[in-house]
Amino acid sequence: MSNAWRVKLREVDAAAPGVAAFRRIVGNGGESAAQEGIWLDSSLQQSEHYGRTFSILCPADGPLNSLVRLWITDAPASDVAAGRSSFSSDATSWSITGNSPVAEHLRSCVNAPSSVFHVLRAGLELVGSGSGEAQGANPSGFNLGWIGAFGYELKHHCEVIRQSPTAVPRPHRSEYPDAMLMLADRAVITDHAESRSYILALTSNDPAHSEVAAQQREWMDWVETVIRELASAGSAEQPDAHASAAEATPSSSSAVYRFDHSREEYFECVRSAQASIAAGDTYELCLTTTAEGPALEDPFATYQQLRATSPVPYGAYMNLAGTHVLSASPERFLKVTEEGTISAKPIKGTRGRSDDAVLDGAWRRDLETNPKDRAENLMIVDLLRNDLSVVAAPGSVRVPTLFGVESYSHVHQLVSTVEAQLAEGYSAVDVLAAAFPGGSMTGAPKVRTMELIEALERRARGLYSGCIGWMSFAGAADLSITIRTVVGNERASTFGVGGAIVADSTPEGEWDEVVVKSQALLQGLHATRQQR
Predict the structure, then answer these.
(1) Most exposed: 37, 300, 377, 529, by fewest CB within 10 Å?
(2) Which of 36, 153, 284, 331 is catalytic?
(3) What is the mean pLDDT of the chain?
(4) How many domains in the chain?
(5) Looking at residue 28, what is its pLDDT?
(6) What is the CATH number of the domain that holds 76?
């Protein structure tokens, strides 16, 4: 089937502002951008730490578009809700929507036992690595393929968990899907540095698919017209509710959102984690809690506030099958180039920002030199080195940057860089399978620490602390850690937050880190509510 499909590329010497482009191209011009789709949005249009940045729009209405959702569940097969396409023997239920040959191919790949990684490989095999015009001419690396969110509970699909003799039963189930992955047949990529756009569509030269090819040509023509119109009009990149209105304090915002743990209960969890450290069960444990609030009245307006108050290189907005994801992540999980270069940038160590330049500099220096933060970061670097060594060419794993400080609007972060070269015979899917979930969201040693986390946390993490991004037909991938992220549906909205517990952590210090990390999200959420 791979010979039937090709990626068609069109380069446009203009770029449209992201909000306006999303409304026109994904939202079909609607003010609430209610249509389904994904926007991977680098609101830092030239990142000091990540260099040249790109934004990617993928509408969900293409003729070959397929949406895969899955739920990790302990329910027996007879209890799985009707309407989900199939399920595998490891108690995963699946939904694969779409009526195209592509969707049918994906459905045929879900059989017992089946993992998310098996389905990822099957989807990427639809287009051969040399099929199409998008490689080389498209500097982003994304030439269509998978795009979406991988939830933390997908750890149960990783071989290291499946084979663990001490694996504990899953005590939690998320009300959100544990993965939302779109096999995108249409995309608009913005190169911020060069003010250029790239329009991509999955098409075919096979006469049997001539109708699809005609639809894709018509769509590409329309998108080029939209981009030129918006660029010519100079549409302002402004949120619905101006960021200047977001003068909310965390205390006024948190009146709407409630954490699963009170301050005192979180203290007790920290002490329990430290007891496990003292017993030798773990060296470092990433403890998190979840805040829950009301359903988002206008998710897209809320996302605009979030990106205005907290610009980052890895922003994301998703509206898929009734679930919204609003992410302002600063952390790269994994990047894999077409040439096989692997890069990870784990974050461990956080300080708030101050308007006082002297105080802000002092906080930055404290983060850079603090032994506790450096120890946390080093343990995750070692964990990632070990994870990547499974798929890396021998001797290629290295750490070019250790304990660097990156500064964003609300926080300073302690960041290291781990790099490797992909070994022959492995792919970006294998890299994800080897490293998932990101070590910065688990602790070390990974498997035993995740088992301890299950006992301490009160609900499934769901999409939080997994990863968001894309995996291209051409073999490249770019994924962020799902932090600083709000997930919502018609009932409620939630976000997770936490930090790494080590032997010399203090309960007070860990709770303070929860508060600091919550501020940007609470400010954006509160500002939108104030405008209603």
Answers:
(1) 529
(2) 331
(3) 87
(4) 1
(5) 63
(6) 3.60.120.10
